[in-house]
Each structure stands twice: as structure tokens, then as C-alpha cells.
Write a structure and sequence with these properties.
Blueprint: E1 4-5, E2 8-9, H1 27-46
Length: 49
Amino acid sequence: MPYSYEGEQWHGYGVVQAKFKQRSEGVSSGTEWLERQIKAEFNEWLRPD
């Protein structure tokens, strides 16, 4: 995806992700679930090999 900022070409990539929860248990519960999911994925992604 071409992208430039202040005339400099960006050399990277973008990530788009969707989450789906089978059963809704309310907005607050869904928000907490999403937060836990994202934190777990970031922790895994940032973990040194």
C-alpha cells in the first residue's frame, strides 16, 4: 500500500484484523473480552524468540 508522509516513502505494511465472538454477553463483557484478546496477541507478538 503506497503511503508517504512529508514527502518520505513509507516502507512497511499494514495489518487489518477482525474479531468475532459467538455469543454476546453485553457491551461491557464484550469490551473486556476484546481487551483480553488483544493484550494476549500483543504479548505473543512481542515475545522474543
